[in-house]
Amino acid sequence: MKCDIDDAIKTLENVKATLLPSVQKIVVLDRGWVVVGHISDKGDGEYIINEAAVIRVWGTTSGLPELQAGPTGKTKLDACSLPIHIPAHSIVFSLDIDEKAWEGAY
Fold first, then answer.
1. Residue 78 zone, left/alpha/beta (φ > 0; ψ -120 to 50; rest)
2. Which range marks the domain in which residue 69 is found?
3. 64 in helix, strand or coil?
4. Which sign, positive or negative, has the C-alpha torsion 103, 83, 59, 23?
5. Cα 105 from Cα 30, distance rounded (Å)
């Protein structure tokens, strides 16, 4: 079994990221990206979003804040299999969400 140090470091960083305190939010990023997931502040100018999905299609009739109550039947989500690392300056704003309404959505 070959051990690649870069893979080991990446794995440890991902484990560490899952141990940071987090809250589930919709996060609007620069360049038009909108993500939902558990966001954590690493404290070094970077945020990590675990258990995330990109909101590709909002599927709303009254804008993005409608999704705070959960996805609609027309919302399209693309689940992310690994944590998303985001520089703090890329965050435009975030919305608190009803975590129960989003449970199992992606």
1. beta
2. 5-102
3. helix
4. positive
5. 24
Q: Is the pLDDT reported for residue 94 higher than 80?
A: yes
- CATH number of residue 60's parent domain: 2.30.30.100
Q: What is the mean pLDDT of residues 66-92?
A: 96
Tell me the pTM.
0.79
For 11, 49, 52, 66, the CA distances from 81, given in Å and listed in that order, are: 13, 11, 8, 25
Cα torsion angle, 13, 91, 93, 79, sign = negative
What is the count of structural domains for the chain? 1
Determine the Cα–Cα distance for residues 64 and 73; give it in Å rounded to an integer. Answer: 14
pLDDT, tens digit, 9 for 90 and up, residues 10-50: 666 666 555 556 799 999 999 999 999 999 998 899 999 99
Task: Phi first, then psi: give them for residue 35, nearest 5 degrees.
Answer: -130, 145
pLDDT tens digits, 53-69 = 999 999 999 999 999 99
